[in-house]
Specification:
Blueprint (H helix, E strand, L loop, with lengths): L12 E3 L5 H12 L4 E3 H4 L1 H12 L6 H8 L6 E8 L2 E2 L5 H4 L2 H11 L3 E12 L25 H10 L9 E8 L8 E4 L8 E3 L7 E4 L5 E4 L19 E4 L6 E6 L2 E7 L4 E11 L2 H8 L7 H14 L14 H10 L12
Antiparallel strand pairs: 1-9, 2-3, 2-11, 3-4, 3-5, 5-14, 6-9, 6-14, 7-8, 7-10, 11-12, 12-13
Helix pairs in contact: 3-4, 3-7
Length: 346
């Protein structure tokens, strides 16, 4: 990866006809029976810190300020993990996690010998305007894994380009289920942030993309009919999406018992996100677990401190860098990176 311009190692690859129609019909039922889906923005506070900073042109002071900045533009996009930490969370999703064909394609895409599936997310979204000007998924480093509490830090580490020797090698396969004609493009900046993005245009039902989303700025544009994209009244951080029956034909957004809106399944754009780690050898895989090869908090701080001091920015050691708001503010202020060419065709 070009750390300054955020260019991925491998060109994204588009795939058509990901699932059979029979599996798609069953998948709606499986999703309907799996539980409540929470707001994506509630979980992705680390990514949202960078989005808010890019939109406001300044550094948010705290997570509470991020929440308040996001609140007026909360989008009805919801998420549930179908597999996590290397484990499928239900037998009905095993084929989305341990898929032999996908494992083979992942090896080919990443040029790797070993593939270790990590998790599967399902993002369910309904009509909404888009505000995202491009983001990267939060990467992992040896010593700094997928703990949500460090997502803001790992975003800054990625943008700095200072921690590539410790970066873990993740890839992704994302695919969509969405039959409605009213959906904006999926855009990605695979040639660098200073060039226009490429587009995957609707219809993209049952299509997928092999990519490295932790090294690839990307975004989804506005969804649904223009007149349906107004903010949903009552939507808040504790709102949930769930199915009203076991068939997956009908869905609702609610705050506790209060129903805010109802939707047929055709109105849902469902994105599945399969993440995996790639290794060239068994020795490389063992390196990830080797305590001697982990980046420590002290090392992380010293690397940031050395780089910032070289730029004339003073960074004093906090007692606990992971909890210190001044450290968080200084790091995210000084390591900003986002697309420079952003089409305004929302």
């Amino acid at each position: 990866m070009n750390a300054v311009n955020m260019i991925p190692d491998f060109d994204p690859v588009l795939e058509k006809q990901v699932l059979s129609e029979q599996r798609i019909a069953q998948l709606y039922k499986d999703l309907a029976g799996f539980g409540e889906y929470e707001l994506i923005q509630k979980e992705s506070i680390g990514v949202m810190r960078s989005v808010v900073m890019a939109n406001l042109g300044r550094q948010p002071q705290s997570d509470d300020e991020i929440m308040e900045a996001i609140r007026p533009s909360l989008k009805p996009g919801f998420r549930l993990r179908l597999a996590d930490n290397g484990c499928s969370l239900s037998p009905c999703f095993d084929d989305l996690f341990y898929n032999p064909q996908w494992l083979a394609k992942a090896r080919q895409f990443m040029g790797a010998t070993l593939i270790k599936p990590q998790y599967v997310l399902a993002n369910l979204c309904v009509a909404a305007a888009a505000y995202d000007r491009g983001h990267i998924d939060t990467p992992c480093y040896r010593g700094f894994g997928p703990d949500q509490s460090t997502s803001w830090l790992r975003q800054a580490m990625a943008r700095s380009g200072l921690f590539e020797p410790w970066r873990r090698n993740f890839g992704n396969f994302i695919f969509w289920l969405y039959r409605d004609e009213y959906a904006g493009n999926f855009q990605y900046w695979d040639r660098g942030i200073d060039l226009p993005p490429k587009n995957i245009a609707n219809p993209y039902h049952n299509s997928g993309l092999w990519a490295q989303n932790t090294k690839l700025f990307h975004r989804a544009l506005s969804l649904g009919r223009p007149e349906h994209r107004q903010p949903l009244a009552g939507l808040d951080f504790d709102s949930v999406l769930d199915a009203t029956d076991g068939s997956g034909e009908h869905w609702q957004i609610r705050n506790g018992p209060q129903v805010l809106a109802k939707y047929p399944k055709q109105s849902l754009r469902i994105l599945f996100h399969w993440d995996f780690e790639a290794f060239d050898s068994l020795e490389q895989m063992r390196l990830v677990e080797d305590p001697k090869q982990q980046l420590s908090v002290e090392q992380m701080f010293e690397i940031f401190q050395s780089d910032l001091n070289g730029k004339g920015v003073e960074l004093s050691p906090p007692t606990d860098p992971l909890q210190d708001e001044n450290f968080k503010k200084l790091i995210t202020e000084n390591y900003q990176l986002s697309p420079l060419v952003v089409p305004e065709n929302y």
